[in-house]
Design a protein that fits this description.
Layout: E1 20-22, H1 26-38, E2 48-51, E3 66-67
Parallel strand pairs: 1-2, 2-3
């Protein structure tokens, strides 16, 4: 008995002519790479994938997923609104 590879599917919900897809996490970006591969989109020649977590998950596939790091800082105090 042969095991089939898992299939990724969006059921046609992705924009067909997109130049890039931006994901809010590395997990969703990895799933997006799976879908792009299944749809035979050439990554990164035809389609760029970008994520925001910059975990090791973005470095494992080939090609690696572009990842940005979010820097969270303390919010600025509100301006003095004296009248």
């Amino acid at each position: 008995m042969a095991l089939a590879a898992p299939r990724c599917s969006t059921q046609g919900r992705l924009e067909a002519n997109a130049d890039a897809r931006i994901y809010d996490s590395d997990v969703t970006a990895a799933a997006g790479l799976c879908v792009a591969t299944e749809r035979e989109d050439s990554v990164p020649a035809e389609l760029s994938l970008v994520s925001f977590d910059a975990s090791i998950l973005t470095t494992l596939p080939h090609p690696p997923i572009t990842a940005l790091t979010r820097t969270r800082s303390a919010p600025s105090p509100p301006p003095n609104c004296s009248r």
